[in-house]
Amino acid sequence: MTVPTQLNKVPYTIAPADASGAAVDLAKFPTALTGITWKGDNDAVGTVTPAADGLSAEVVRVSAGTVNVTVSGTNVAGSVVTQSDAVVFEVVVPVVTNLNLTAGTPTA
Fold this sequence. Notes:
By secondary structure, the chain is mainly β. The protein has no helices and six strands. The protein has one domain (9-89): Immunoglobulin-like, CATH 2.60.40. Helix content is 0%, strand content 42%. Strands 1-4-3 form a three-stranded antiparallel beta sheet, with no helix packed on it. It has a three-stranded antiparallel beta sheet with strand order 2-5-6, with no helix packed on it.
């Protein structure tokens, strides 16, 4: 879970890996993962905008709350690979440390 307390956007990237955990270079093996899609489940809280290459996305805060971000793609064996994360955008109440006192115009 990602909790950005004062941020309005969260960048995400994927790092495809094989069953042994070794990184898979999609530039070298472009068919290793295809049809990459990103989505969020609550556009009222945050919108998910994927990059053109599908390997990254940005979640932008709309309001306080939780949006579950999911990325998926199809591997060369035809199986769908999915990963999700919950982004919790919190309302941060500012701490008042000063009072700026301003006098009005004196009247008779």
